[in-house]
Amino acid sequence: MSRLILELLLRATGETLEMVLASGFIAVLGGLPLAVFLTLTGPSGLCRMPWLNRPLGFLIDAVRAVPFIILLVLLIPFTRIVAGTSLGTEAAIVPLSVAAIPYFARIAEVSLQEVDSGLIEAVRAMGGTRWMIVRYVLLPESLPSLISGFTVTLVTLVGASAMAGAIGAGGLGDLAIRYGYQRFNTTVMLGVVAVLIVLVTGLQALGNLLSRTLRHDAPMRGA
Amino acid sequence: MTLLAVEAISRSFAGHTVLRDISFTVQAGESVGIIGRSGAGKSTLLRCLNALERPDTGRILFEGQDLAHLPEKQLVLLRRKIGVVFQHFNLLSSRTVAANIALPLEIAGMPKAQRQERVAELLHLVGLEEHARKYPALLSGGQKQRVGIARALAANPALLLCDEATSALDPETTTSILDLLNQINKTLGLTLVFITHEMDVVRQLGHRVLVLEQGTIVADGPPADILKPDNALSSVKGAGYVASYS
Ligand SMILES: Nc1ncnc2c1ncn2[C@@H]1O[C@H](COP(=O)(O)OP(=O)(O)OP(=O)(O)O)[C@@H](O)[C@H]1O
Ligand SMILES: [Mg+2]
């Protein structure tokens, strides 16, 4: 493999990581509060508000229903307003985040709903406020599961960011299309695939490790 | 001195009456057992006593305040004076034993240094000093319930409620937990209201027993009288007794 190709791969990997990590961060920032809100206002929540829960749930699902490649195009005007341009790595973070927020919100909602209702009852009985229940029960008890869900989100973002490459976002997808597809450079194409595999399996392994380390709800296996 | 006065409370869920015109009082320092068949409304009654459930009618006077009518904001503060021990322990798996016991104190806003001191006291009381830094998943059922009791006592409650605190434990562990609860009632003078399906628990722990049937109190008196084999009500309790072992 030539030095040039290696440099191209390296730069593209950096751009992909930038897109994935930035939009992943924004997905947590936006998605987690949404998930908490959905859980609290849901049918078995602590402050049921169907008139708010249902429209919000609908909006979240509506965004998730749009295929990413179409969302990418639909959001171009919005991306221009937020990022100043609709081209490049930074600009791609906007549509990636818009897609990732509702995605992570639904995944995190499931994690939060799986928290044992007995624990919520216990903290309510102690005189805990709703905020304390979120802070002391919902979030810490679901943390290992939230991390697993976040890992899934990141892996999905790796794939989506490759798609964003198609509209000039840079990154591994962009590289694969420009060199591999348009110029029939098989080395680059295979290189991109190899890097993607390493990236995804690496993220997954890291996520699993972190989630397992933080999980205290079952006696340690092999301990 | 009367600590708790329940005055004619009723509660129904979707037209189905679960509690019907219930009245009784609990004196400070007393230990009162509640028995009755599954579905009789015992847990619902207990949930009313610490204001997790609001009765539809009637009053519940605790330290002069009416739990049935107090706004939610004040109820939150009042619940901190009532400890609850649960059948399935309900310990936070994300917190160590010490941190679980400290939680009611954190909720009450106690400073950290004071909190640590109080947690050490409680660990000593329930005999779990060497397990302070473990996570609950590593403890046995009896040890978990000791943590549950320590946690319920942490904020110095005026009343301790136990909903089948020993139902998930084997007979030997049950005895040790009952001894602990007895000790707490006698030496700390803490008022106890407990639900159980086991007649032995009532005999060992209760000064007085209430029998609940289909949402009404059908008997109220010392265990020795109520649990007499020739008592007209013994069939009711017999059923509850058998149910707990089936
Ligand atoms: N939140 C609720 N909504 C609807 N019905 C309820 C609710 N809480 C309790 N009930 C009903 O009230 C009745 C009494 O329930 P409760 O849990 O108080 O019984 P219990 O005496 O504690 O029974 P067990 O011995 O099985 O614990 C049951 O029929 C139950 O289905
Ligand atoms: Mg019950």
Automatic annotation (TrEMBL), chain A:
It is a multi-pass membrane protein. GO terms for cellular component: plasma membrane. It is found in: Cell membrane. Keywords: Cell membrane, Membrane, Transmembrane, Transmembrane helix, Transport. It comes from the Bacteria. CDD domains: TM_PBP2. Its main location: membrane. GO terms for biological process: D-methionine transmembrane transport. Signal peptide: none annotated. Gene3D superfamilies: MetI-like. Residues 13-205 form the ABC transmembrane type-1 domain. NCBIfam families: PRK10782.1. This is D-methionine transporter permease. It comes from Acetobacter orientalis.
From TrEMBL, chain B:
This is Cell division ATP-binding protein FtsE. GO terms for cellular component: plasma membrane. Signal peptide: none annotated. Belongs to the ABC transporter superfamily. One of its GO terms (biological process) is amino acid transport. Gene3D superfamilies: P-loop containing nucleotide triphosphate hydrolases. Residues 4-239 form the ABC transporter domain. It holds the Pfam family ABC_tran. Keywords: Amino-acid transport, ATP-binding, Cell membrane, Membrane, Nucleotide-binding, Translocase, Transport. One of its GO terms (molecular function) is ATP hydrolysis activity. Part of the ABC transporter FtsEX involved in cellular division. Important for assembly or stability of the septal ring.
